[in-house]
Structure formats: C-alpha cells, structure tokens
TrEMBL record:
Its cofactor is FAD. The keyword Flavoprotein applies. It comes from Streptomyces diacarni. Keywords: FAD, Flavoprotein. This is FAD-binding oxidoreductase. The active site is at Y443 (proton donor/acceptor). SUPFAM superfamilies: FAD-binding/transporter-associated domain-like, FAD-linked oxidases, C-terminal domain. Belongs to the FAD-binding oxidoreductase/transferase type 4 family. FAD binds at P125, F126, G127, G128, G129, T130, S131.
Amino acid sequence: MAWNAWGDPAHARQLEDSQRQLLVDTLGVSAAAPPRVERSALRLPPGALPEPARAALTAVVGEEHLRTDDAARILHLGGKSTPDLLRRREGDAHHAPDAVVTPGSHEQVQALVEICAEHAVAVVPFGGGTSVVGGVEPAREGHPALISLDLRRLDALVELDEESGTATLQAGLRTPEAEELLGAEGYTLGHFPQSFEFATIGGYAATRSAGQSSAGYGRFDAMVTALKVATPRGTLDLGRAPATAAGPDLRQLFLGSEGTLGVLTEVTVRVRRAPAERRDEAWSFPSFAAGTAAVRALAQRGLLPTAIRVSDETETFVNAVIAGSAAPEGCLSVVSHEGDPDEVARRGEAVRQVLTAHEGSLLDDEVAAAWRRSRFSGPYMRDALLDTGVLTETLETATSWAGLAALRETVTATLTAHLRTATSTPVVFCHLSHAYPSGGSLYFTVAADAGEEPRSRWRAAKQAAGDAIAAAGGSITHHHAVGQDHRPWMEAEVGPLGVEVLAAVKRTLDPAGIMNPGKLIPEAATQPPAVS
Ligand SMILES: Cc1cc2nc3c(=O)[nH]c(=O)nc-3n(C[C@H](O)[C@H](O)[C@H](O)COP(=O)(O)OP(=O)(O)OC[C@H]3O[C@@H](n4cnc5c(N)ncnc54)[C@H](O)[C@@H]3O)c2cc1C
C-alpha cells in the first residue's frame, strides 16, 4: 500500500480536464493543491525503544521481524483518513513508531504484549492500516516507546469446519486471500467493505465492520462465533457453543475493542456456500425519501437483498460524472441478490414488487454493471481530488427510521455551513448504506475547496457534524469505529457509567495501559483514580 495515498500505486487515478474544470466551476476550487513531499524528505525521530525491551522482543520474533528502519516505520505512520493522508503529504512523521514487530503465532503475540507491559512500551495492533478514525495512530500517551504490532504474518486458514459452517482464520489475513482460501473449498465470507483489498479479519472484528453485502451476509461482528485474544494478563479463548446462557457474552467485549484490550489472533466466523448466481439491478426513485421508504419496507418485511443502497440526488449526479455517464433521474439505488438460482429469482421478484410499489423504476443493466466494476475504486479518486486542490472526506452515522430524515438534514446543513468560504461552496452528499428493521445508516461525502488549511477546516467541520449527530440522537459511528477521532463523543454514546465500565475492563486486562493508548475510551476514564 502506498505510504501517502490509498492502495496500490499502480492503480492511482488522475482527473480528466473536463472533470477538473467542473470542480473549478462548481466548488470554486482554487488552482493550488496541498503540497506532496517525497518520501525521502521525511525526517523521523530516532527510535526510542529501550535496549532491554528490544532484546526481549527480538528474542521472541527474531531480528528480521523487529524492524526499526525508516521504510517500515513510515508504512506504520497511521491510517487512511483524509487528515492522515494530508499530514503525510506535508511530511509529518514526528510520531512514527519506534519499531515494527511482525509476530508469526499466537504464542509470540502473547509473549510480546507481556514484554511490552513489563517495559511500559505502548502497542498498536496493526491489521491492514485502513482505519479512518485514527485507530492505528502511534499515540504514546506518556509511554516512553511504542511498537506497531503488524499482524501480516498471521495469514492462515486454521480450520474449515464444513459440518458446522464455520472457518477459523488468523487475524492478519486480508480479505482477498481469505476469499481465495475459502473459495477453493466452495465457501465465501461475504464481507465486502470498500477497503476489501487491504483490510484484515482481525481489523474487521476489532472495529465491528460492515460491508457492502452486509444486508445479506450480516455485519462482521454478527458472523463471529469465537475469538482468541492475547491480552497483557494472558490469553482468552471465547465462544465454545453457537449460543449460551452462561452470563454476559464476553466476545462482545472484544468485538469493537479496537486493540485497546488485547490482540485478536484468531477469529472463527460463520461461512456460506459461494453463491451459484448473482443478479445486480439499478433502480431510480423520484426522491431520497421514496428510496429510503422502499428499503425500510424491505427490511421490515424480512426481504432485504444481499446488498442495497440508495444515493441522494447529488450523489447520483456526482457518481455519474465520475463514471462519465448520464445521470439517471432522481435517486439511484443499487440492489444485488446472491444465492441459488431459484432463490435469486424468487427473492428478486418479491423485492421488485416492493420497489415498484414505492415508485421505483428499473434502470438499464449497464448502470448496475458500472457500480460493480467501480465499487472498490472510489478511494483512488480521493487522491486524485486531493491532487487537484479538493478536500474530500466521508463520515457515517446510524439512527432509527423515525430520525433518519432529520439527521440527514442537520448533518448536511452543518457540513455545508462549516466548509463554505467567501469564494467556494462545498458539495455534500449522502447515501443510505445499511438497513435494519428499526433504522439505517447514512454515509456522507464532502467535496470542498481545500484552501490554505484543509486539515483544520475539516477538523472544525467534523467536530460540528459530530456534535450535530450526538444532538440528533444518532450514533457517532455505524461502522468506521471510534479510534481517536470519535473518542470525544463516546460519553454521549454510552453515558458516563458506560465509559467507566469500559475503563474498568481495560484496567483489568491491561493494567499498564499499553494497549493502543488514546483510542476508544475517553482519556479521563483511563486515568488511575485520584488518591484522597
Ligand atoms: C477507503 C476506505 C474504505 C473503507 N470502507 C469501509 C467499509 O466499507 N466498511 C467498514 O466497515 N469500514 C471501512 N473502512 C474502514 C476500515 O477499513 C475498517 O475499519 C476495517 O475494519 C479496518 O481493518 P484493518 O485490518 O485495516 O484494521 P486497522 O486499520 O489496521 O486497525 C483498525 C483498528 O483495529 C485494531 N486492530 C486491528 N487488528 C487488530 C487485531 N488483530 N486485534 C486487535 N485489534 C486490532 C487497530 O489497533 C485499530 O484500532 C474503510 C476505510 C478506507 C480507508
């Protein structure tokens, strides 16, 4: 993965002249793009890993799996949010981890976290590094040194239990390889987030990820049946039966724990037979309200297809411009069905009846085919836009059906107000990305003139949008997780007592506070209690 951009550098995109001109005309983009320094210009601080800790860690993994060179440290500077990329483009590497350690087994991970606890060395579990919320930021928070614990060598399919329909996967396995290993046996995981090519099994579990086909296959957390976790206090093996009444479900403590409690090393997930048939359809609705009403009807009747999303009018137009095609009328919805041919036909017909009853019109097959071709390529466009002087970023939330329209209105208005300047007007658009019987998730994208201070402008807009989401009763995140960036809203999300509960669990499992400091749990709650 490129150190200062999304994905594979070979797939980098550039805007066409007509697209660039459209941005100048619609957004008032000034010609200057934010700077982009060469990697060789980065200045890293000297590594600060104390020698006794280095020697002990090396004894576990071997010299070649503890790297302190610039190349390795630069690839672990943080995640892939727009502010992350802007910082790297500016050449900011002052926070680089002191070392990158790549363990090869659960036992090695267990030994490493124990050594780090003993030497007060902070540990950032690093999967694919695709966090967009500061989840893999090397934040020391008072610790003298920090390692990035890159799980890439834990990349095996440990066991496929065909009788039970489950697979045990090592945490560092990326999704394309997981799909390849499972596909060879006729199975699929069915998890297809936009970060599919780079994100890992452990990262998905640690962030409660949701993918494009989660309507059909379920969110990642819903697929997990068992977990193996290395914590500074020892190993936990959780999930011995498909269901249990043996008290609160401790697996839930680790799903979404974002590396703050321990390192997930193995994840057992429910797998499905690879579908024999897939049918994609594109629909148009006269308004976003009509499209969301249709999806709500499907969710509440138990008729959700494998994937479904509805773009608002602006997103429908913008996506057509990017694809170089004519925009359909109104709001575009993409629907996908997977399964046995009979089921695809039967469900497809039932869904079609509901969508038609909600004023939906079926579009040409090519519209859906274009969505499938481009569904992982959007992030490359972000780099091309940044190169052109456009600040672009996304945020997401979820709420009840009753609160959805008001939440969309307030977030759109807040982002627009905070990104507008005297000479430029931002574009803010949104789609309904996931649906449940009781509500749905809204995914917003902004495009605005980058101006002089794109990072601080985005920070202010994001702060205001987060406050608006909290005030409107939405969740601060539906699937991007909390990390550093959403931490200020955790108390609004779970209440002060909820934060205390999380902090108490952390103190039990990680008394030295070395596991991914500065993430998820608000700072005040992680401080030791004052002595009276
Ligand atoms: C372009 C783009 C598109 C995206 N699209 C989606 C999307 O469609 N759906 C979605 O849900 N998310 C999406 N994301 C966000 C991101 O991909 C997810 O949060 C993903 O689950 C992170 O996986 P990862 O392996 O990259 O984890 P990382 O980014 O490496 O880590 C994420 C967090 O999990 C922790 N962690 C990682 N591995 C472990 C482990 N084994 N044990 C304990 N903690 C661990 C890290 O410390 C960190 O806190 C997108 C991100 C980008 C940049």
